[in-house]
Sequence to fold (213 residues):
Amino acid sequence: MTTPSTTTREPITTAQLTIAGANKASWADLQEIFGTGDYPGKCYCQHFKTRDCHWSSMSDRERQNRLREQTRCDNPRARTTTGLVAYLGKEPVGWVAVEPRTAYPRLLRTRTVWSGRQEDKADDGVWAVTCFVTRKGYRKRGITYTLAAATVDFAREQGARALEAYPMITPPGKEITWGELHVGSRQVFADAGFSEVSHPSPRRVVMRIDFAN
Fold:
């Protein structure tokens, strides 16, 4: 692996990236993306997949092991996985979590996701995009836009009836931390073809694509 530049800020276009199911990635690739020094390296995409009562008792190692098992990385023949990985050349640079909404116990209990909506929480046909991670050195260069667009085809190909996301609004001039924006921004999903279906809090929106039968 090469060491990414922390000074280059040129946009990375969709044409420059290759997107693969996480089962086709190596565990070493995922570790490069998540790292160890900030929030992604502590969470390992387990926040929405873990009930509140279990979250604080889990060790960093356990969260890593869970992600490794869930993605079925290093197993290109696996029939299911839990996300997509973006590559710039041979370098792993980004991750997005996408799978049936029912795979996220904490999401099903998040009040702002359901406010004002009559939804069957047990509907496996509705998929969800819950988390983005961009590798250090490649952030703020547009990788999440390509990953968000890729989730649409991936969910459709896997038989999803609809795909949802729960992004944050980013007010102009206001600094937003990764811990807030790991769910993506509204513009990222708007550009991928999602439409806003509810606005349950001042800063949270629910966006969705319903696929034709």
Observations:
- The domain at 16-210 is CATH 3.40.630.30 (Aminopeptidase).
- Residues 83 and 97 are 4 Å apart (CA to CA).
